[in-house]
Amino acid sequence: MPNGNPLLSRLHMAAAAACLALTLAAPSAHAADVLDVKTIGTDLARDIANETVKACTDKGYSITAVVTDRSGQIMAVLRSEYAAIQTMEIAAGKARGALMAGIPTSELRANRPELAANLMHLDSIMMMDGGLPISVGGSRIGAVGVSGAPGGDIDEACAQAALDALFDRIEFAQ
After folding, report:
1. Which runs of consecutive H residues, i.e. helices, occur in the chain?
2. How many Cα neighbours within 13 Å face the side chain of 130?
3. Are strands 139-147 and 64-69 parallel, antiparallel or unpaired?
4. Rounded to two decimals, what is the model's pTM?
5. Is 82 found in the same domain as 106?
6. What are the CA-CA distances from residue 113 to residues 57, 83, 157 (Å)?
7. Do residue 64 and residue 123 come from a single domain?
8. pLDDT digits (tens, 9 = 90+) for 100-140
9. Helix H segments across 1-85?
């Protein structure tokens, strides 16, 4: 008890509690230093790759599907047994292109051909049809790229079929 007065002691304790509550309730000046981000999980990446290959295999095409996380790192790769080895690198580049653009690579090529041509100069980026971004609740969590079918439009259709097949898992992911 300060000065032996119980009232002052209670006031000091109340003031200390109020300061602590304000400190805990106030946003930190460094709140932006640590961010909550969404990224694709391994199970979903694997299933997207699998569904993509299945969609093209059902049409008679041997392809490779690559799924990347939001930073462009490969999360899943699945290559049909007859797909050329080069399709892995091409599919990964298409996925990274879609990730960077935030739209299908075919859309960027159609609407901004000069930009797509310039982006092709970046390492690990392929601005060819067949790459689709993957988003959840407005956050880009990854991308899928496909290579091996006789045309990027077919590659893209297979990727879109996979995303459509897994719509509930993607759309309602938390």
Report:
1. 6-25, 42-58, 86-101, 105-111, 113-119, 152-165, 167-171
2. 29
3. antiparallel
4. 0.80
5. yes
6. 30, 28, 21
7. yes
8. 999 999 999 999 999 999 999 999 999 999 999 999 988 99
9. 6-25, 42-58
